[in-house]
C-alpha cells in the first residue's frame, strides 16, 4: 500500500509548499509513490485526513495555529516540520526578541482585526516533531532525499555542518575575507548549496544554526571589520531569530536603546 | 590525447635555468595558443569576488594584468597597479586541489536488477588541462596529494585520471604576501621540481625553461629568443626579493613540541575560543585530503549513487562513531588539524603537511594564524619544560 | 586497473538471530570468480553496502561452508538495515581490508583473548585457529565480558572451549545481580586476575569498547605484561577502507590501512588521549 502524506500550512509565506510544487518531474514521481491527501497549495483539501507523514510548513503565531497543529499531530504517524518558520518560528519570531510594539501599526492600516499570539513558536514547541527540514525555503534536494529515506524506513542524512563547507565545495571565494561582507555562513547549517555566497552575497542564516555555532567569535570579527555593531547584532536575528545562539549574540552585541539616545 | 602527453612528464635532469629562453611580453599569447593547439584546456588565475582563483580561460585576454594581492589573517584584497605584468600576485583562493581532488566526485552507481545488485564504476575522461601560474608551494602540495592519493595500496582512479592529464606552467614568485612562509617550510618561493614549464616574469617578457620532456616540446614551439645576461640578473634579484617573508614556522618538524602540547587541553583553549570550526582552513589547504562518502538516490529509487565530497576534521560527522563524536569540542578539532598538519604528517608521509602557502591564515574568517599558534604552542611547551626542570 | 571503490554483489545465504539486536549473516559473492579469489586473515574487515543507504565496515567473524560470516549489531541506519535482511537478499561487499592478529608471531607463547560485548566477533576466528593448532601455543585464556547473561553470544562454543586442554575460559557479566554458574560478576578486567598465564611469555589480543580496553591495558601492566606483547583491534569512522578518506586517523595511524589491529605500545599515546 502506498504511504499517505499531507502537506499542512500554518503561519508562513507558502514558499516551502512552492518548493514542493516546483519539484517538476519529481512531483509526478512523488504523487505516484505516495498518496497526497492534503496539499492546499496544489488544491487538495482534506485537512482531517489521517496520514503516515505530515509535512508542516509555518510557525505557530495565531490561536488557530495552536488548535490546528494539535490536530495535525493526532492524525499523522510521522511529523516533519519544514522550513525556518516551522523549525524556529521564522521571520515572525522577530517579535519574540525585539521591541515590536509599534510594528503592527506601521504595517497595517487597521490593527483591530489582528488576532495573533504574543510569540511566534516553532512546531516542536507545541507538539512532538519527528524530523526537521530546515531552510527558507527548504531545499527540494533535501526534501527528495527525506521522502526517499522515509520510504525505505530510515531517517535521512541531513547536514549539520556549516555553509562554508558547501561554499568551498562550490568553488566560491569567501566574501567575508575578500570583501568584508557580514556573512553568517560560519554559524549557519548547510543545505542551501551556499546559494547566496555563490552570487557574491553574504549568508543570512536561512537554514538555522549549524552544529557548534561560535556566534560570539564571528560577531566580534564582523565588528572588528568595521561593520557597525548594531548592524552586526541585527544580522543574527532575521530569518532564524527564534534560535538561542543567534538571540544570545544579538543580546550581547545590541546597544541598549538608552545608549543610542 | 595531445602528442605532447605521450612524451611524458619526467623531469629533465640535464636542463638547468641556463638553458632558459626569453619570451617577449607581446608574445605571451603564443603560450596560450600553443597549449590550446596541443589539445589542452587552459586554466589560469582570474579575478572573481575580489580575489584571484583558477578558472578555465576562454581566451588569453581573461588573464588579468597589473593585479597585486594583499593578504593578512582573514583578509584578501586585490590592488590594480599601473603595469602589465600578469603574475605579480602571490596567492589564489584555491591551489591545484580542486582540479585533481574534486570537491564532489561520483564514485559508483548501484542498481537493483534481476537476481541482485549491479555496480557500475564511474569512469571519466577528464580533458588534458594546463594550469598557468602555479607557484612552488602549490607544486609541493601537489606532491603531497600525489603521495596520498596515488602511492598507497589503493591508488585513487579519479585522482589518477585527472593527474595524468595535467600540465603545469609554474611561475617563480617575485614577491611574498604577508601570509607566506614557504621559505621556512623549504617549499619555495623558487620552483625546483614538478613543473613542465617555469616562468620568471620581467617587464619586458618571460624567462622560460622546461622541466619535462613535454615542457621542452612546447617551449620549442614558442617564438623565444636567447636569454641575455641582464635578464638573468634581474630575475635572480626578483627571486631574492620573494625570500623576504614575515612569517616562519619554528621548525620543519614540530613533532616534539606538538606531541607534548596535545596532552594538555589548556594549550588549545585560547584558539578554540576564536575558532569557528567552519573548516575553511582545511578546505583551502592544498594538502588536506579528507573526504566523506554520501549515498544519493533519485526519488524513485531506481538507482543509488556513492558520491565523495570534501570533508574536514572540523565537522562533527568526521569523527562520528556509532553513538558519539570522538572530537566534539573546538579544542579537539583544532588540535586534530594542527597536530596532523605539522606533526603526525611526518609519521604518515615523512614530511610536514604544510607547504607554507598561508591560505589557512588568509581565508580563516576570524584570521587564526597557524604560524602564530604553532609558535605559541612551542613557547608554552618550552616554558612548561623549563619550569619542570 | 580495477576500481577499488566499487563493491561486488553478494547474497545473504543464511541469517541467524543471535540476540534481539545481533544477527550473523552468511554471505557469498554473486560472481563465483570473485568468491574463489577472495582470501582473508583473522581480524580483517569488509565493507558491507546496503542499497540506497551506504557502506559500513564490519569485521569478518569467520568463513564457514563457503560463506563469509559477519556478526552485526543494529546500531546505525545501515547496520540496522543489514540485520533485517533475509536469505536471498543482495548487498554490496568489498574487502578484505586491514591487517590481522599476530597468530604467527605468538607461536610458542601463552595466548590471552580479552573481549567484551560484540568485540568477540573479530577475535572468534583467531581463537578457532589457535584451538585448531593447539600444539603451537602454550596456555590459552579466553575472556569475554557482557552486560547481561543473555547478551552472551555463542555460549555453547565457549563451553566447548572449556574442554580444550590447558584452555581457560572466563566469562563475566557486569550488570547481573548474581553470578550465573561458572561466571564472574563484574567487568571483563576482573577476569585478568583469575587468568593463569606467564606474563613474560604471553601475547594478548583484545577487542571491545575503548574504556574496557584502557582498563585491561592497566590491569595487564600491573600483572607485568609488556605493552609490546598486547594487541588490540581499534575502530574509528571508516568510509573508504582504502587509506584515502582520512576519517579513521587516530593521530598518526590510519585504522583502515595501518590497523585495525595494533600493538598497544605503538599507538598507546594516541589511544589514551581523549579526542583522537
From TrEMBL, chain A:
GO molecular function per UniProt: 3 iron, 4 sulfur cluster binding; oxidoreductase activity
InterPro entries hit by this protein: Hydrogenase_assoc-protein, NADH_UbQ_OxRdtase-like_20kDa, NiFe_Hase_small_N_sf
Pfam families (UniProt xref): Oxidored_q6
Domain NADH:ubiquinone oxidoreductase-like 20kDa subunit: 13-150
Keywords noted in UniProt: 3Fe-4S, Iron, Iron-sulfur, Metal-binding, Oxidoreductase
Cofactor: [3Fe-4S] cluster
PANTHER family tied to this protein: COENZYME F420-REDUCING HYDROGENASE, GAMMA SUBUNIT (PTHR42845), F420-NON-REDUCING HYDROGENASE VHU SUBUNIT G (PTHR42845:SF2)
Identification of the protein by name: Sulfhydrogenase subunit delta
Originating organism: Marinobacterium nitratireducens
Organism classification: Bacteria, Pseudomonadati, Pseudomonadota, Gammaproteobacteria, Oceanospirillales
TrEMBL record, chain C:
GO biological process, one term: pyrimidine nucleotide biosynthetic process
Cofactor annotation: [2Fe-2S] cluster
GO molecular function, one term: 2 iron, 2 sulfur cluster binding
Keyword terms, alphabetized: 2Fe-2S, Iron, Iron-sulfur, Metal-binding
Keyword Magnesium belongs to the record: no
FAD-binding FR-type domain: residues covered: 5-103
Record InterPro entries: Cyt_c3_hydrogenase_gsu, Dihydroorotate_DH_Fe-S-bd, FAD-bd_FR_type, FNR_nucleotide-bd, OxRdtase_FAD/NAD-bd, PyrK_electron_transfer, Riboflavin_synthase-like_b-brl
Keyword Manganese (UniProt): no
Full protein name: Ni/Fe hydrogenase subunit gamma
Species the sequence originates in: Marinobacterium nitratireducens
Amino acid at each position: 500500500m502506498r504511504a499517505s502524506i499531507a502537506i499542512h500550512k500554518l503561519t508562513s509565506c507558502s514558499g516551502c509548499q512552492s518548493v514542493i510544487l516546483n519539484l517538476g518531474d519529481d512531483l509526478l514521481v512523488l504523487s505516484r509513490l505516495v498518496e497526497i491527501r492534503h496539499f492546499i497549495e496544489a488544491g487538495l483539501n482534506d485537512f482531517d485526513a489521517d496520514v503516515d507523514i505530515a509535512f508542516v510548513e509555518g510557525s505557530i503565531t495565531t490561536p488557530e495555529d495552536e488548535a490546528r497543529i494539535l490536530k495535525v499531530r493526532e492524525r499523522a504517524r510521522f511529523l516533519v516540520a519544514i522550513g525556518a518558520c516551522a523549525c524556529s518560528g521564522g521571520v515572525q519570531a522577530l517579535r519574540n526578541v525585539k521591541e515590536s510594539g509599534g510594528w503592527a501599526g506601521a504595517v497595517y492600516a487597521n490593527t483591530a482585526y489582528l488576532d495573533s499570539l504574543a510569540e511566534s513558536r516553532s512546531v516542536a514547541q507545541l507538539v512532538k516533531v519527528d524530523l526537521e527540514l530546515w531552510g527558507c525555503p527548504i531545499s527540494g534536494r533535501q526534501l527528495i532525499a527525506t521522502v526517499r529515506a522515509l520510504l525505505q524506513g530510515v531517517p535521512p542524512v541531513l547536514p549539520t555542518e556549516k555553509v562554508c563547507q558547501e561554499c568551498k565545495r562550490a568553488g566560491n571565494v569567501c566574501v567575508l575575507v575578500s570583501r568584508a561582507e557580514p556573512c553568517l555562513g560560519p554559524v549557519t547549517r548547510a543545505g542551501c548549496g551556499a546559494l547566496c555566497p555563490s552570487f557574491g552575497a553574504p549568508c543570512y542564516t536561512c537554514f538555522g544554526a549549524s552544529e557548534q555555532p561560535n556566534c560570539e567569535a564571528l560577531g566580534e570579527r564582523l565588528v572588528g571589520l568595521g561593520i557597525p555593531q548594531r548592524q552586526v547584532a541585527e544580522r543574527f536575528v532575521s530569518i532564524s531569530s527564534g534560535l538561542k545562539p543567534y538571540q544570545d549574540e544579538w543580546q550581547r552585541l545590541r546597544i541598549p536603546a538608552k545608549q543610542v539616545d | 590525447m595531445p602528442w605532447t602527453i605521450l612524451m611524458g612528464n619526467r623531469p629533465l635532469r640535464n636542463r638547468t635555468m641556463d638553458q632558459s629562453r626569453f619570451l617577449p611580453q607581446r608574445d605571451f599569447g603564443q603560450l596560450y595558443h600553443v597549449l590550446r593547439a596541443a589539445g589542452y584546456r587552459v586554466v589560469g588565475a582570474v579575478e572573481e569576488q575580489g580575489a584571484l582563483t583558477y578558472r578555465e580561460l576562454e581566451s588569453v585576454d581573461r588573464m588579468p594584468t597589473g593585479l597585486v594581492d594583499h593578504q593578512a589573517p582573514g583578509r584578501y584584497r586585490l590592488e590594480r597597479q599601473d603595469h602589465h605584468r600578469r603574475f605579480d600576485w602571490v596567492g589564489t583562493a584555491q591551489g591545484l586541489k580542486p582540479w585533481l581532488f574534486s570537491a564532489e566526485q561520483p564514485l559508483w552507481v548501484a542498481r537493483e536488477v534481476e537476481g541482485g545488485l549491479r555496480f557500475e564504476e564511474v569512469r571519466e575522461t577528464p580533458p588534458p588541462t594546463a594550469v598557468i601560474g602555479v607557484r612552488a608551494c602549490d607544486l609541493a602540495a601537489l606532491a603531497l596529494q600525489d603521495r596520498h592519493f596515488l602511492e598507497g595500496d589503493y591508488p585513487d582512479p579519479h585522482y589518477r585520471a585527472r593527474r595524468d592529464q595535467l600540465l603545469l606552467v609554474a611561475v617563480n614568485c617575485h614577491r611574498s604576501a604577508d601570509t607566506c612562509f614557504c621559505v621556512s617550510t623549504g617549499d619555495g618561493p623558487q620552483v625546483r621540481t614538478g613543473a613542465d614549464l617555469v616562468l620568471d616574469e620581467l617587464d619586458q617578457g618571460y624567462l622560460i625553461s622546461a622541466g619535462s620532456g613535454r615542457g621542452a616540446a612546447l617551449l620549442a614551439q614558442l617564438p623565444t629568443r636567447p636569454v641575455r645576461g641582464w635578464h638573468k640578473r634581474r630575475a635572480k634579484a626578483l627571486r631574492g626579493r620573494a625570500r623576504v617573508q614575515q612569517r616562519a614556522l619554528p621548525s620543519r618538524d614540530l613533532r616534539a613540541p606538538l606531541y607534548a602540547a596535545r596532552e594538555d587541553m589548556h594549550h588549545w583553549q585560547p584558539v578554540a575560543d576564536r575558532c569557528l570550526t567552519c573548516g575553511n582552513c582545511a578546505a583551502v589547504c592544498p594538502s588536506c585530503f579528507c573526504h566523506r562518502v554520501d549515498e544519493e538516490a533519485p526519488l524513485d529509487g531506481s538507482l543509488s549513487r556513492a558520491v565523495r565530497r570534501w570533508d574536514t576534521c572540523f565537522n562533527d560527522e568526521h569523527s562520528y562513531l556509532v553513538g558519539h563524536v570522538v572530537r566534539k569540542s573546538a579544542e579537539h578539532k583544532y588540535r586534530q588539524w594542527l597536530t596532523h598538519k605539522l606533526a603526525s604528517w611526518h609519521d604518515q608521509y615523512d614530511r610536514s603537511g604544510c607547504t607554507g602557502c598561508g591560505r589557512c591564515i588568509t581565508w580563516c574568517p576570524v584570521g587564526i594564524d597557524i604560524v602564530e599558534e604553532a609558535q605559541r604552542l612551542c613557547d608554552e611547551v618550552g616554558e612548561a619544560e623549563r619550569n619542570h626542570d | 586497473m580495477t576500481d577499488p571503490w566499487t563493491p561486488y554483489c553478494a547474497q545473504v545465504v543464511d541469517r541467524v538471530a543471535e540476540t534481539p539486536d545481533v544477527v550473523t549473516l552468511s554471505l557469498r559473492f554473486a560472481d563465483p570468480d570473485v568468491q574463489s579469489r577472495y582470501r582473508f586473515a583473522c581480524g580483517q574487515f569488509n565493507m558491507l553496502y546496503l542499497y540506497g543507504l551506504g557502506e559500513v565496515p564490519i569485521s569478518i567473524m569467520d568463513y564457514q561452508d563457503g560463506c563469509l560470516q559477519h556478526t552485526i549489531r543494529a546500531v546505525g541506519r545501515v547496520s540496522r538495515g543489514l540485520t533485517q535482511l533475509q536469505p536471498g537478499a543482495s548487498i554490496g561487499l568489498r574487502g578484505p581490508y586491514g591487517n590481522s592478529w599476530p597468530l604467527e608471531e605468538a607461536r610458542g607463547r601463552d595466548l590471552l583473548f580479552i573481549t567484551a560485548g560484540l568485540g568477540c566477533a573479530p577475535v572468534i576466528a583467531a581463537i578457532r585457529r589457535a584451538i585448531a593448532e593447539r600444539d603451537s601455543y602454550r596456555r590459552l585464556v579466553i575472556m569475554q565480558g557482557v552486560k547481561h547473561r543473555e547478551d552472551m553470544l555463542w555460549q555453547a562454543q565457549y563451553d566447548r572451549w572449556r574442554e580444550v586442554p590447558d584452555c581457560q575460559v572466563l566469562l563475566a557479566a557486569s550488570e547481573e545481580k548474581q553470578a550465573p554458574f561458572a561466571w564472574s560478576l563484574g567487568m571483563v578486567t576482573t577476569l585478568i586476575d583469575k587468568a593463569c598465564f606467564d606474563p613474560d611469555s604471553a601475547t594478548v589480543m583484545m577487542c571491545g569498547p575503548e574504556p574496557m580496553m584502557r582498563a585491561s591495558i592497566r590491569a595487564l601492566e600491573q600483572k607485568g605484561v609488556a605493552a609490546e606483547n598486547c594487541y588490540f583491534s581499534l575502530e574509528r569512522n571508516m568510509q573508504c577502507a582504502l587509506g584515502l578518506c582520512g576519517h579513521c586517523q587516530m593521530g598518526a595511524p590510519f585504522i583502515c590501512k595501518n590497523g585495525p589491529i595494533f600493538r598497544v605500545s605503538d599507538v598507546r599515546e594516541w589511544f589514551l588521549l581523549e579526542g583522537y
